[in-house]
Write a structure and sequence with these properties.
Layout lengths: L2 H5 L16 H6 L21 H25 L1
């Protein structure tokens, strides 16, 4: 199980496919392996050339993931 699977709440779907891409280039290189229907989860709030806003989003996301991990761990 990937680390993100342990804390991701909304970005999951049941599928027989086991595809995990990190870059657009990886998607393009594997386009022949994609199913006829697919869901691509994107995070446009992270798309910025402003280093301050990008860093702020990165810190917020990491803090949020720590909180989710703690909540899930205490739930188990």
């Amino acid at each position: 199980m990937h680390q993100i699977d342990k804390v991701s709440v909304g970005d999951k779907v049941n599928s027989k496919f086991n595809l995990d891409f990190k870059t657009t280039q990886q998607i393009i290189a594997n386009v022949d392996k994609l199913p006829s229907k697919l869901m691509i989860t994107i995070h446009p709030e992270r798309w910025t050339d402003d280093w301050f806003l990008w860093s702020k989003q990165l810190v917020f996301q990491n803090v949020k993931n720590v909180v989710k991990r703690v909540l899930i761990k205490t739930k188990d």
